[in-house]
Amino acid sequence: MTNFNILPNRRNPNHLNKWTWYPKDILPMWVADMDFPAPKPILDTIHKAADQGVLGYELPSLALKQTVAARMDKLYKWKVRPEAVVATTGIVSAFSVAARIACTPKRGVLIQTPVYNEFLEVQHNIQIPQLDAPLVKQIKGNIIHYEIDWTAFEKQVKHAGMFLMCNPHNPLGIIFPPKDLLRMAQLCIKHNVLIVSDEIHAELLLGGKKFTPLATLSAEIAKHTITLIAPSKTFNTPGLFCGFAIIPDDKLRARYETEVSHLRLHVSSFGLFAAQTAYSGKCDSWLSELRAYLTANRDFLVDYVSAHMPDARLTNPDATYLGWLDFTQTNIHGSPFEFFLTHAKVATREGLLFGPGGAGHLRINFGTSRKLLTQALERMRKALLKNVNTQ
Ligand SMILES: Cc1ncc(COP(=O)(O)O)c(C=O)c1O
Q1: Alpha-carbon distances, residue 62 vs 48, 68, 82, 84, 126 (angstroms)
Q2: In the chain, what percentage of residues exceed pLDDT 70?
Q3: Among candidates 164, 168, 176, which has minimal Cα distance to 118?
């Protein structure tokens, strides 16, 4: 059994990460990596590669592509040809490459805010328009949930070159149901829009939830889709920067690979080695334990906020280790991120980074020990209480 209650110390003064970014008294619940060590089989792979001594160039091998394809078959009965698998230097660079081949100054990138902040950067990086079909907040007691605004989606998709979808969704933790996926995909195909499905969180399922990759819905959809996956969130190896673009259509893949080659986006050898082990199945028992721990953390977060922060609302995420908290009805004026950083010494993620609907919200990372999560929430509760008493 893995003990997720014990965390290694990442506060090395010569390193710059979420633990060293702020002063020591701040609890870091912001960047989306977990505080847990990666599973032992991955660490063994890295040790073995280092012990061999030569840190030379490596290319994605056929065996690695076969391993990725076999994982898709095992998880979803999705038959991917190994040659459809392209290794990428992570997922942000992969969707940036896709935008370069699919978007123009007239056909922009369609996103659904509030969404992972890097989605909002594509427009600036590639100088293309951004089209937004914001998700709509639904409120039930103190639980919030978001749904697709189909009118907005249908209006915006006509002007898009690419639809960048986040499923499971960061920061909202939504797993889109197949009927919604199908409808979005059909609209994209109708308007000749490339679908890029960022599925980096697909294996971080909570409470026994199931996930359906968009491209498995039909051969027609698969032909129009680039699916982006990575072991990095699931197995906590994001610093190795290795992901995969699954591109079944040969012509689309050739265009994608040409752009990658122009940009010289070579994947690091450790990233490739780790991915092979991560997707081999050797880490799957660790993953089931992780999911159970994260599910319990999610439940704890939801219960704690419901019981102790009565005016706050939050999501009950089906996937990811990210919670989305709504403080718009509380006594905090201005940014809750700033409020809690100053008054609770807890660093979360500013909601506005995820789009205009994020004002008054923040994202919290619960991929940490229960002890630390409890400490952060208690500090936040006390800061809220003090705020009431001083008003
Ligand atoms: C939806 C999503 N895509 C991509 C990334 C980052 O991917 P990478 O570090 O491989 O570029 C993240 C990280 O939080 C994410 O949440």
Answers
A1: 20, 10, 7, 11, 32
A2: 100
A3: 164
CATH superfamily entry for domain 27-38+284-389: Aspartate Aminotransferase, domain 1 (3.90.1150.10)
The 10 Å Cβ neighbour count of residue 24 is: 8
Question: Domain ranges in the chain?
Answer: 27-38+284-389, 43-278
Ligand 1 centroid, distance to 198 Cα (angstroms): 8
Can you say whether the dihedral through the CA atoms of 158, 163, 169, 175 is positive or negative?
A: positive
Q: What is the CATH number of domain 43-278?
A: 3.40.640.10
| Residues framing ligand 1 (Cβ under 6 A) | 32, 90-92, 116, 166, 170, 198, 200, 230, 232, 238, 243
Q: Do residues 45 and 51 lie in contact, with contact meaning Cβ atoms separated by under 8 Å?
A: no
pTM exceeds 0.90: yes
Q: Each residue of 112-145: pLDDT tens digit? A: 999 999 999 999 999 999 999 999 999 999 999 9
Expressed in angstroms and rounded, the spacing between residue 95 Cα and the centre of ligand 1 is 10
